[in-house]
Design a protein that fits this description.
Aminopeptidase, 14 strands, alpha+beta, 13 helices, 386 residues
Length: 386
């Protein structure tokens, strides 16, 4: 009989234990970037997270002799299931010690909960939406993680395969060197194309004087509208609605540097593409020990506003409307970011995870000095009754 007990999270104290387990498991790992406690607590608060209007979730903790040894969230995104005509239960926020029995019992809890709700397939790691961390790391364990992606030990994907899960989708991430002497690659091509599309199609980068201008002009909604259309056919995507857009705006706007917001407009002033970058907060969150309060905010504020020698630029989102994919709109984004990153002294940029199958997106990096340094995957398994 197993000495491992699986229980659902019922109280705020247990939710805090759920949120802190990732930090405890990785606190001595130099590459892992922990979840921020405040973010995790808000994510699983139905009053704070608009996704609860179309999602259900159950959180599970694994304990051995009273000590927490694993965690996982089971999520049903009804909107995504309707969009893709599926009956999927997702698993996310999954962490566990290197004990296959712990992993087996956690996944069994997700599968049983999914079956009780009529689901026939389990897949993950995925969040409530595509703007939550997704994809289990399968390569790049010796690379610094980011605040907006998942880091895990190498034994994680091994456990998934042992339990009969199969890879369903893959993502890659790139380390993109900021152009400087010895690393220019063919970056000039972006500037040439950008100038050409400005002259031929009237495309332009919208510049902002303040964050207030971004909000008043409704540009957060316009940017996320581009995300909805450009990501619509990507794996398991579910469209963001107005309430979700506002929630993400409230969450991310504080960290945004308007110089690294690239909004591409066509000749009629319609937003057709966007790129969103922020300075890396990875080291700051590590120093904060995953909590903003009472003292963690100091490290985050220092990274955002007082870092005179920034090293890494995180590329959170890049997207262009499908009808403009072959018209060079993405060149405007790179032509806008490269001079700013060079001037600020960044060494490299970390690309957001991109689907291996999205070949059109993969080609946009070809004129820069870059390489794939991380890979991640979603794993799935049929749980339908025979």
């Amino acid at each position: 009989m197993s000495d491992i007990i699986i229980s659902s999270v019922k109280t705020e104290k247990e939710l805090r234990q759920f949120a802190r387990f990732g930090y405890e498991l990785y606190k001595d790992n130099p590459y892992a970037v922990p979840d921020l406690l405040e973010d995790t607590m808000a994510t699983f608060d139905a009053k704070e997270n608009p996704a609860f209007r179309f999602c259900e979730t159950e959180l599970f903790l694994a304990r051995r002799n009273g000590k927490i040894v694993g965690r996982v969230a089971a999520i049903i995104n009804h909107r995504a299931n309707e969009t893709w005509n599926t009956k999927h239960v997702r698993f996310g926020w999954i962490d566990f010690i290197d004990d296959i029995e712990v992993t087996r019992l956690l996944m069994q809890a997700v599968e049983n909960w999914g079956k009780q709700h009529g689901m026939t397939h389990v897949v993950g790691p995925l969040g409530f939406t595509d703007l939550d961390p997704e994809g289990m790391l399968t390569d790049g364990f010796d690379q610094l993680g980011t605040v907006f992606s998942i880091y895990n030990y190498p034994y994680y994907p091994q456990h998934m395969l042992q339990l009969g899960f199969q890879k369903e989708q893959g993502w890659v991430e790139r380390k993109v060197m900021v152009p400087k002497e010895g690393h220019e690659a063919n970056m000039q091509k972006y500037f040439k194309i950008a100038k050409l599309v400005e002259e031929r199609y009237g495309f332009r980068i919208r510049k902002f004087k303040s964050k207030k201008e971004i909000l008043k002009g409704g540009y957060i909604e316009k940017i996320l509208g581009v995300v909805n259309r450009s990501y619509a056919k990507l794996y398991e995507y579910s469209a963001l609605d107005e309430q979700q857009m506002k929630a993400y705006a409230d969450r991310f706007l504080m960290a945004l540097d308007k110089r690294y917001l690239s909004v591409v407009e066509n000749a009629e002033g319609e937003v057709i593409g966007m790129g969103v970058c922020i300075t890396s907060l990875s080291r700051a969150v590590q120093k904060a020990k995953s909590k903003l309060f009472p003292f963690g905010w100091f490290h985050v504020a220092k990274a955002l506003w007082f870092n005179k020698h920034p090293q890494i630029l995180d590329m959170l989102l890049v997207g262009v409307l499908p009808e403009y994919h072959d018209k060079g709109a993405n060149a405007l984004i790179f032509a806008n970011v490269i001079p700013e990153a060079t001037k600020d002294g960044y060494e490299w940029a970390e690309s957001h995870p991109q689907l291996e199958s999205n070949l059109a997106s993969q080609t946009q990096w070809k004129n820069l000095d870059c390489h794939i340094h991380k890979r991640r995957a979603a794993f799935g398994k049929d749980i339908s009754e025979s």
